[in-house]
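Q: My labmate handed me this sequence with no annotations at all. I'd like to see what the chain might look like in three dimensions before we decide whether it's worth expressing. Could you predict it?
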Amino acid sequence: MQHISPGFVGQLVDWLDRSCRLRVEVAVNGVEPMPGHVYFAPERLHLGLDPAGRIRLSAGEPEEGQRPAVNVLFRALAQQYGPATLAVLLTGMGRDGASGLLRVAEAGGHTIAQDEQSCVIFGMPKEAIALGAARQVLPLAEMAPLLEQLARGVGSGRLRAAT
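A: Here is what I predict for the chain of 163 residues:
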């Protein structure tokens, strides 16, 4: 989930899709998420999952002043995948993501928050850490190797990743 000003999601998705080995795209309602794909919420829509695990977009009320909101996605992942969820909360202003990360932790999922030293803005991770939602607090440079190690379980259905 990315908080971004209206008008920039498409450009960011295009740039990332050209720059990454993974397929990066704007999420489409009703589509089943596929391995090796990165999905961005469309502008002004929350991204979650329906009971069948397909992408569910909604124009619900903003949460913590945000739409899309990280909390919506994290809650959906916790409900759908429980302990098989991997959720990471990175730098950002405000509290969005903190209560959702706590839901993932309470469901037995693996939760990570970015440490203060490597954050540009320590607001969102700080709130999650204060709630006790982060199983690990790591600098950004240590996340990719850990995520690669943890993601090896994705193919077996043991772990679902979301950042």
